[in-house]
Input
Amino acid sequence: MNKTGKILLILLALVVFSGFGLMVRADIGEPGSEDDPLVTKSYVDRVVSELKGYFDKGVPVTGPAQDLEVVYLEKGDRLIAGKGTEIILRSGTALIVDSENGGIADVTGGKDLRKGEKVPQNHLLIVPREDGRGVVAQTSLVLLVRGSFEVTK
Output
């Protein structure tokens, strides 16, 4: 075989393989169409309609009340919180009341507040257990509280 024959043979092979590739590609279907082998359009439509149904129903809320309650304390009053109660000091000054099991988590400041520490304003505090933890008012104050609690004079 001479040089021209080899070139013609290579070109013929390229044409044959290209034609075969086009036939395979034509069998796959366009991406996103109903013939797309990865995900069919009918499947996506069905899943989207199911998800819309979930969102239309809404998410039921269970457990403690989800609203923040405004609580006013006078100097010397104590707020003793239940487990999982969230406290935010909006005005005034207060000190932490802890237990032998630990303090109250200041999730805004990223630390554990212990007995006698000043409660920072506008920080979210979370009481981990129902074991006597809470706050005592140093002045008249306003708290936002979500969860169970008891106020003592």
The chain has a mean pLDDT of 86. The radius of gyration is 34 Å. The first helix runs from residue 3 to 28.
